[in-house]
Automatic annotation (TrEMBL):
Domain of life of the source: Bacteria
GO annotation, biological process: DNA integration
A GO term, aspect molecular function: nucleic acid binding
SUPFAM superfamilies, alphabetized: Ribonuclease H-like
All residue ranges annotated as the HTH-like domain in the record: 70-123
Pfam family, one: HTH_21
Domain Integrase catalytic: 152-236
Annotated protein name in UniProt: IS3 family transposase
Entry-linked InterPro entries: HTH-like_dom, Integrase_cat-core, RNaseH-like_sf, RNaseH_sf, Transpos_IS3, Transposase_IS3/IS150/IS904
Length: 247
């Protein structure tokens, strides 16, 4: 092959991913210039030959030296932590010896060196059911009997959460078991009963008036057991609340 030793093979184009920066690329080109032409290797590795020759004439900059020293310290702290520390914790260590470095700077260096904490971050989970309250809880006599033969005979309700680009929203739904359709729902920015369960129930009874006995089954969360919600149900004597304990 022209410009290279007999039987020599040029590095694949994906080879540039093996290097962390231009200096590493330049060192590779210099070390293999007897095997491959400089121009060809530069083209394969995605750098210009002029930048390669410029890099040979100019020593490593002060900024690069500082970056190398910082990376060395980061790797040392990372190994001592048994690969547990992430950028927030590692950024604290250099300050103890008088070296000030920001967390984003540490995170960027760790990303380049492919250093990741083996400790997974605990995902935030919204808790919508708070059954640790002092309100009275209605017994659940509904059990698993979901048989119905008319509208507004058995309703089930629940409160859940939705993550949006602007934060968490809370969705309260009421489903009629006769047709398994959502009778009405309320979307709110808080989990307060007045914005969630009360709002959904008021819309549901307006949409499907309660004229006979109705069983409303929900969990034992404070939004269903609070005095505001129970006072509202008193206006509808046909409605019986049934609180089921979540498994």
């Amino acid at each position: 092959m022209k410009g290279g030793a007999a039987g020599a093979r040029y590095p694949k184009k994906g080879g540039q991913h093996l290097f962390q920066g231009r200096r590493e690329i330049f060192r590779f080109i210099k070390a293999h210039k007897t095997e491959f032409t400089v121009e060809k290797t530069c083209k394969v590795l995605g750098v210009s030959s002029s930048s390669y020759y410029y890099g040979l004439k100019h020593p490593v900059s002060v900024t690069e030296l500082k970056s190398q020293v910082l990376l060395s310290q980061i790797e040392s702290i990372y190994r001592k932590s048994r690969c547990c520390y992430g950028s927030p914790r590692i950024a604290i260590e250099p300050e103890q010896v008088g070296i000030h470095v920001s967390r984003p700077c540490v995170a960027k260096a760790m990303k380049r060196a492919n250093l990741k904490s083996i400790v997974q971050e605990r995902k935030y989970r919204v808790q919508t059911t708070d059954s640790r309250h002092t309100y009275a809880v209605a017994e659940n006599h509904l059990g698993q009997d979901f048989a119905v033969d008319r509208l507004a005979q058995k309703w089930v309700s629940d409160l859940t959460y939705i993550k949006t680009g602007e934060g968490w929203l809370y969705l309260t739904t009421i489903i009629d078991l006769v047709d398994r359709k959502v009778t009405r729902w309320a979307l709110s920015e808080t989990m307060k009963a007045i914005d969630a369960t009360l709002a959904a129930f008021k819309m549901a009874v307006n949409h499907r008036p309660v004229v006979q006995q109705l069983s409303l089954c929900s969990d034992r969360g404070v939004q269903y057991a609070c005095s505001d919600f129970t006072e509202l149900l008193k206006k509808y004597p046909e409605v019986t609340a049934k609180h089921e304990q979540k498994r």
